[in-house]
Give the backbone structure.
Amino acid sequence: SQKIEQNSEALNIQEGKTATLTCNYTNYSPAYLQWYRQDPGRGPVFLLLIRENEKEKRKERLKVTFDTTLKQSLFHITASQPADSATYLCALERFNQFYFGTGTSLTVIP
Amino acid sequence: DTAVSQTPKYLVTQMGNDKSIKCEQNLGHDTMYWYKQDSKKFLKIMFSYNNKELIINETVPNRFSPKSPDKAHLNLHINSLELGDSAVYFCASSQVDRTLYEQYFGPGTRLTVT
């Protein structure tokens, strides 16, 4: 079965720096990979999707890369702000079901 | 205008009881899902359902059953509740044939079994 791991459960960075989160999977490469943000007490919110034939995707201060050789996706938040503090989840789709990673809790320190 | 709504938000009940959680989406999506998020915040899919197919994750006990009265609703029935069922349950929906294929999640239902 697919195992999806995200780097360290918690990540603390200084405001203004770039946060880099990782998502590693073990078996099949999905057709695409998604990133979500989850705030305490709320449901996840979709941020970005990247397909297997895409190397990089950007949306405002967010950037996602996808390396099917390494079986890894990197999620970057540039010029981080305290409002970016949340848990970030990666998700892989297979046969119309989504499998989520363990999540990384990001704290941006003012 | 809430896209995906769930009721109730909190549910406290005793072991052995049967309970239901309701989910409604007003996005016109064709597929709905149920997820369980445990105390370690791990989000695990339980079911995906559209009007053609129900896919059940093999680890889900058969005490859990989804019921869809129509395309906009997917309710979750749980029989003979156990302590280990305590978690936050999220409903979600998506449109499978859309380019982005993103899921929209409800606010969650926190179930506590005592």
In short: Residues 30 and 95 of chain B are 5 Å apart (CA to CA). The first strand of chain B starts at residue 4 and ends at 7. The interface with chain A takes residues 4, 31, 33, 35, 40-45, 48, 50, 53, 55, 57, 90, 92, 96, 100-108 of chain B (CB under 8 Å). The mean pLDDT of chain B is 91.
